[in-house]
Amino acid sequence: MSRALPKYNKRRVGIIGGAAAVVLSGAVIAGSALAGEGANNEDAAGNASPGTISCPSVEGSLPAVPASAQAEVDRNLALLDTQIQEANQRLIDTVGQGGANFVQNAILGPLEDKRIATLNRIETAIGRAAAKPEGLEALAPCQLNQGGAAGAGEEADAGAGAGAGAGEGAEDAGNAGAAGTITCPEVEGELPAIPASAQAEVDRNLALLDTQIQEANQRLIDTVGQGGPNFVQNAILGPLEDKRVAALNRIETAIGRAAAKPEGLEALAPCQLNQ
């Protein structure tokens, strides 16, 4: 079985004490940061601040980090900061886009999935040399702190659906015309023999993988005409891959409780658009 991608196991366990106590804010986005945006958009949405994304602090919730794990933990802590910065930049780049749930679906949701994967890697790195911390996933969800009349994309009630980005998609449509369909690698045929005790959990996650594809295909339809040339990759295919990684890790873990744990199922996570 392919080992093309690294493995990280998602553990859904209790919340670490004090996990939600400290919030790590992304870099503050000043109103002047939208000057270029406002120059191109005469409406109020173009001049409004999109706000900033803030996430729970991770470093203060970690146990003592073994010396052998320090470098890997530091890399992943830095990656968590980078993910917040990228999400804040995406807030700026997408001001005025999408419907009422755009920020949640296209920015906050994908950010949470990325943070879960990174937090799992931190748990695994520490667990190789000491007691593995549990429940860091509780630090994954982030929130939007809006400033002023922020969130033009959030408040555009009429923006949902195919007609939402009419002005957006007229000249720079990354999802224009026929929506196409999303296809993903088949998983069931790549699995080893499944222990009886794991069958129900594996079946649930296989069904979830199918549901995720159906939801992504529906989102393709709902967002025809929205976004720029990378909209489908950033807002649909990328988040779908993150969700699939999590589901595939759960399948590996379920089988591994009663038999040899399969490795490398994450290689089946990336999907593609067939137009």
From TrEMBL:
<keyword id="KW-0732">Signal</keyword>
<protein>
    <recommendedName>
        <fullName>Secreted protein</fullName>
    </recommendedName>
</protein>
<feature type="region of interest" description="Disordered">
    <location>
        <begin position="149"/>
        <end position="180"/>
    </location>
</feature>
<feature type="signal peptide">
    <location>
        <begin position="1"/>
        <end position="35"/>
    </location>
</feature>
